[in-house]
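Quick one:
INPUT:
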C-alpha cells in the first residue's frame, strides 16, 4: 500500500485530506508542522509527501529544503498543497527547492488524487526526479526565501490594513446606529408620555361631562344637556384629530404613491384650494410664486407638506390686520430652496430647532396636536431633503424652508 505523509497545522484540513487519501486506498501518516513531518519521514520514509506551506515551528518551504538536502529523502516526491501562497513566484520558488508539484487549494478530491498518482508514477518511472533537477545553492535559496516571506508579509499588512479599515467603518456604523436608537428610544419615551397625557385629557373631559349629562338629564335641564353634549363632542374631536395625525405620521415611508414629475406650483395651489375655507374666513392673503419648477416627488405627500405648513402659519396669525403667506423658492448656490413664509408671531431663534419635534407647540393656546411639523420633516427626509425654520424673533414672522434633491426641471 502506498504510504503518504501529510502535513498541515489546520486540524480540519488535515482530517479532510486524510479521509480523501484513505478513501482512495492510501496509507496515511499525519503531521501538524514541518518539524513533525521531517521526524516522521526519517523514522519511516513515505512514498510521497503532501504538505501545506504556512505552518508553525517549520514551514513547508524549510521542510522542502531540508527534505531535498537529505540523501535518504531527496528522491521521495514532494508536493505542496497550499491556499496561502498562490503567487506564481511562490510556485517558482517551490520548484527551485526541488518540489515535484505545486497545487493550490481547494482542489476537487478526484483531481487531487490524480495529481498525486501522476507524480508517484512519474517518480517511479524515472527512478526519482531529483537526479534530473539541480537544487539552487544555499545563498540563492535564502535570498528567494526572504523575498517570498517579504511578499507574504506585504500582502498580510495590506489585508490587516483593509480589515482594520473595515472594522473601523463597522464600528462607526455601529456607533451611529446606537445614537439613532438612543434618539429613537428617547423619542418613543416622550411619544408614549405625551400620547398618554394628550389622550387622557379629552377622556377626562368626556367622563366628566358624561356624569354631568346624566345629572342634567335627570333634572330635565335641556340647555345644560346641549352644553354637555357639545363639550363631549369637542373632546372626542380632539382625540380623533390626534389619532388621525398619528396615523398619518406612522404611514410615511411605508405607504406612498410612485414618484412623478409635477409642477410644484400646482401642488402648492392644490393645498391652498383645500384650505380655501379657513383662509377666506381668517382673511389671509396667500401668494404662490409663479414658475415654481417641476420636481420628481410623491405628489400626495408634498401636497400634505404644503397643507401642514399653511395650516401652521394660519394658527399663529392671531388678530393681524393684514395677514399674509408667501409660497416660493430661492437659490442657495446651485440648490433650490422652497419655502412657506408668513407674517405670524415668529419664533425665538433658540427654539427654531425644536419646532419639528413631536408635540412641540410654541404656543400652548394654539390649535392642533403639535404633530404637523413632525409630519413635514418626515416627508421631506423621506424624499432625501432637509427642512428647517427661520425667524428673526417674536413678531417678525416665520419661514419654513425645505429642499427636494433629485430630478428637477426648471
Amino acid at each position: 500500500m502506498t504510504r503518504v505523509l501529510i502535513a498541515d497545522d489546520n486540524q480540519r484540513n488535515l482530517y479532510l485530506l486524510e479521509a480523501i487519501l484513505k478513501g482512495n486506498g492510501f496509507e496515511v501518516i499525519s503531521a501538524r508542522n514541518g518539524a513533525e513531518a521531517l521526524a516522521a519521514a526519517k523514522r519511516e520514509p513515505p512514498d510521497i509527501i503532501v504538505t501545506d506551506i504556512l505552518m508553525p515551528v517549520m514551514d513547508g518551504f524549510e521542510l522542502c529544503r531540508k527534505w531535498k538536502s537529505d540523501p535518504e529523502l531527496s528522491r521521495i516526491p514532494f508536493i505542496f498543497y497550499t491556499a496561502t501562497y498562490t503567487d506564481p513566484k511562490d510556485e517558482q520558488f517551490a520548484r527551485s527547492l526541488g518540489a515535484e508539484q505545486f497545487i493550490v487549494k481547494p482542489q476537487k478530491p478526484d483531481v487531487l488524487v490524480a495529481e498525486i498518482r501522476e507524480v508517484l508514477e512519474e517518480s517511479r518511472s524515472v527512478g526519482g526526479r531529483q537526479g534530473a533537477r539541480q537544487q539552487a545553492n544555499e545563498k540563492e535559496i535564502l535570498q528567494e526565501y526572504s523575498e517570498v516571506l517579504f511578499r507574504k508579509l506585504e500582502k498580510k499588512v495590506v489585508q490587516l490594513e483593509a480589515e482594520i479599515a473595515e472594522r473601523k467603518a463597522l464600528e462607526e456604523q455601529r456607533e451611529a446606529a446606537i445614537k439613532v436608537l438612543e434618539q429613537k428610544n428617547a423619542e418613543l419615551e416622550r411619544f408614549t408620555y405625551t400620547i398618554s397625557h394628550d389622550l387622557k385629557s379629552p377622556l377626562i373631559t368626556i367622563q366628566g361631562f358624561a356624569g354631568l349629562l346624566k345629572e342634567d338629564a335627570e333634572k330635565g335641564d335641556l340647555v345644560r344637556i346641549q352644553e354637555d353634549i357639545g363639550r363631549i363632542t369637542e373632546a372626542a374631536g380632539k382625540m380623533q384629530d390626534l389619532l388621525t395625525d398619528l396615523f398619518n405620521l406612522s404611514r410615511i415611508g411605508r405607504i406612498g404613491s410612485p414618484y412623478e414629475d409635477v409642477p410644484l406650483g400646482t401642488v402648492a395651489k392644490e393645498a391652498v384650494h383645500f384650505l380655501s375655507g379657513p383662509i377666506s374666513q381668517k382673511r389671509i392673503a396667500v401668494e404662490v410664486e409663479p414658475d415654481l419648477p417641476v420636481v420628481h416627488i410623491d405628489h400626495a405627500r408634498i401636497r400634505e407638506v404644503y397643507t401642514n405648513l399653511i395650516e401652521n402659519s394660519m394658527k399663529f396669525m392671531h388678530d393681524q390686520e393684514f395677514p399674509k403667506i408667501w409660497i416660493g423658492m430661492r437659490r442657495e448656490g446651485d440648490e433650490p430652496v422652497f419655502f412657506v413664509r408668513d407674517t405670524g408671531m415668529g419664533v425665538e431663534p433658540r427654539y427654531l430647532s425644536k419646532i419639528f419635534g413631536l408635540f412641540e407647540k410654541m404656543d400652548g393656546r394654539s390649535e392642533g396636536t403639535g404633530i404637523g411639523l413632525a409630519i413635514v420633516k418626515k416627508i421631506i427626509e423621506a424624499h432625501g431633503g432637509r427642512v428647517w425654520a427661520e425667524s428673526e424673533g417674536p413678531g417678525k414672522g416665520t419661514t419654513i424652508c425645505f429642499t427636494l434633491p433629485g430630478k428637477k426641471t426648471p
